[in-house]
Amino acid sequence: MKRFRWIPAMVVVAMLAGCVPSFRENKEVVGPNQESEAEVETTIIPNMQLDDNYYKTLIPYKESAARGLVVSNIYTKYDIKEAEEGLMRISQNEFGTDSYYFQEGQYLDSETVGNWLARKSAKKPEGLNPPADEGMDPVKRAKEAPIYLAHIIEQNYLKKTRDDKVALGGISIGLALNSIYYYQKEQYGEWYDEPIPQEQLEKKGKEMAEEIVRRLRARAELQDIPIVIALFKQEARNSIVPGTYFAYSVAKPGKTELGQWIAIDEKYVSFPMSNPEDIYRDTNTKFLNFKQDILKYFSNYTNVIGKGFYQNGQLVKLSIEVPIQFYGTTEIIGFTQYLTGTLMKRFPDSIDIEVSITSINGPEALILKDRDDKEPFVHIYEY
Question: What range does the record give for the signal peptide (predicted)?
């Protein structure tokens, strides 16, 4: 069954008049001259777009058909966030934010995703992970048949048609892959870990991607839709930085095969480092100097943690968390002013910077600076 969403012609008029448009779904059926029935829903496209890097989302907002699985399938909150945001970033290479609208995945429901994530067996013939007998030695299973695929993320991209409708214009699929396989030798026993080599992980990920495209193409409503598939490598369970996508490919409309795989060079690292590689040494030195500047201001300061995001070997964003132990609005204002000046002095203009100052009471101040901006944005909470 095809799905379309109507864009009401009166939406803009209603907004200008100060009226609140109804979010009630109005369903209609296209006339009998159509080859199949189509479900039609009234929808609203927001006028405001925060940034060219963000997609507009339609109202009413539709939650994922597999909502909730990501929390149980992906190890850390950092990986959950990056698996979704990174896929959206990759999708912009195929589906521009100026002509496509974002919607959470509607075609892979929880049951389907669960079946695909299972080990292949007589009971789970659709399982994409390798089969393993129940009596198989745990160590042998970890080395020869680990769980490669941890989760499947689906994102839909809708496009406006000539007759004031929006219809599916593209699908993006993210495959969250395990870099480490965790296992127990006996029930309730100690946990062990078996790293999965990158070459092996990439090979299996690409094989699974090809199979997923074939399965999606078997659905009539997805036969002529471009499909983006990207491979995401999870970090360890105790990691404080997220993993990243390392490759993606596109199946053109009507094609059951993926095109050429495109490598992605992205990496998150934490600062400060005790023994940094050459590529991170300069930023690590700047970060250590920044930390010393804080100690000069308040001697009872304890810790600062930074997270750097690199693309193609270049630092593009630095996020810093500064927990504070002192109290009082005047102290927070003074410290924030000092910190803002220190940031401008220590770090280059070519990167995005975000500094979050927190205390036991919660967020205290926020400093944001986009690359090449002359002045940062500073906000002190509850002031």
Answer: 1-24
